[in-house]
């Protein structure tokens, strides 16, 4: 970045610390649906090297232009907790879901959007992460893959279908099924699979809007590095504070959970800090529905979009009015506003 000096061409270069990426020990079997026996999860004990807390920076002043370097440098390390993340999601409704919703493509679309919107509210409030519906497909004549009682086999076939047949660019593709799987859980997903064409997805069984929204929170939670482990969650520091409602990634509670436990949130942040979820930091440029000023996404025809009236008041009202930059504003929020 430029530095204040007499020489106008002086710049400061920041060197990023080395970050160990997640290593997949078993790419074909990282599922989390059945009980611990035979189950393999993605995990990594890799940390930043001793003494390297990510805050070190090395300055080099270069005069008369910047020198080329083999080392790729970035301007500081992003704060994965405070920076808003975006999960660009595609939903596929199977034939059974279509039948459950009166064989109406419109009703199926409205139902699926309601599920995603409810899940988005939870992710936005607790994880600073938006679930953005970018595409939807409804199988109105027949299923395009075999969907049976075994959720693991269905997930395997569904992800194969995604790789071979879905051209839509998105971070994850999830199946909404109108049937019930023979499993103790109502979903199946790859742990840490977000951003991957072969593992970025999950399947969710039928229910009303509320239960399906929580199921989607759980399956997407696994995609972004969260684990479902009854023994770990019911003991020690990971115990869910709300024993009646339960927590979203737990197998406890007597009602629909609404909160992620502290440990689930820490798993997500650790996943991001270790290099996972790199696709979540770009703002979506395409939504399923037409442009709508006030939804928080800059779409064609808009210069900015600071969100709802309350959100704009908190962060961008001085620079963005009705999705148009105010006089002399160079951006909609932040220090440059």
From TrEMBL:
Localisation per UniProt entry: Membrane
One record GO biological process: proteolysis
Compositional bias of kind Basic residues: 61-77
GO molecular function: metalloendopeptidase activity
Membrane as UniProt keyword: yes
Biased composition (Basic and acidic residues): 38-60
Name of the protein in its database record: ADAM metallopeptidase domain 11
Lineage of producing organism: Eukaryota, Metazoa, Chordata, Craniata, Vertebrata
Gene symbol of the encoding locus: ADAM11
């Amino acid at each position: 970045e430029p530095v204040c000096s007499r020489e106008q061409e002086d710049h400061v270069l920041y060197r990023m610390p080395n970050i160990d990426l997640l290593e997949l020990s078993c790419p074909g079997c990282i599922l989390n649906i059945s009980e611990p026996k035979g189950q393999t999860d993605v995990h990594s004990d890799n940390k930043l090297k001793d003494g390297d807390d990510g805050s070190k920076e090395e300055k080099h002043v270069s005069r008369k232009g910047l020198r080329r370097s083999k080392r790729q440098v970035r301007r500081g390390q992003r704060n994965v907790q405070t920076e808003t993340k975006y999960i660009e999601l595609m939903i596929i409704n199977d034939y059974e879901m279509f039948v459950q919703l009166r064989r109406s493509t419109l009703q199926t679309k409205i139902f699926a959007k309601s599920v995603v919107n409810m899940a988005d509210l939870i992710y936005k409030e607790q994880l600073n992460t938006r679930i953005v519906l970018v595409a939807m497909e409804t199988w109105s004549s027949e299923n395009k893959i075999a969907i049976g009682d075994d959720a693991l086999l269905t997930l395997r076939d569904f992800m194969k279908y995604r790789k071979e047949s879905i051209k839509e660019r998105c971070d994850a593709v999830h199946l909404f099924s109108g049937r019930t799987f023979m499993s103790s859980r109502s979903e199946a997903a790859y742990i840490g699979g977000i951003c991957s064409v072969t593992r970025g997805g999950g399947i969710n069984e039928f229910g009303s809007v509320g239960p399906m929204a929580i199921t989607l929170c759980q399956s997407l939670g696994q995609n972004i590095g969260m684990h479902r482990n009854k023994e770990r969650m019911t003991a020690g520091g990971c115990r869910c504070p709300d024993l009646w409602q339960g927590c979203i990634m737990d197998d406890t509670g007597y009602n629909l959970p609404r909160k992620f436990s502290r440990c689930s949130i820490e798993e997500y942040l650790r996943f991001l800090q270790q290099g996972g979820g790199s696709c979540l930091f770009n703002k979506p440029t395409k939504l399923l529905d037409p442009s709508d000023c006030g939804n928080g996404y800059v779409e064609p025809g808009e210069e900015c979009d600071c969100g709802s009236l309350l959100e704009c008041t908190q962060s961008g009202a001085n620079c963005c009015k009705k999705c148009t930059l105010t006089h002399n504003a160079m951006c909609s929020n932040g220090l440059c506003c």
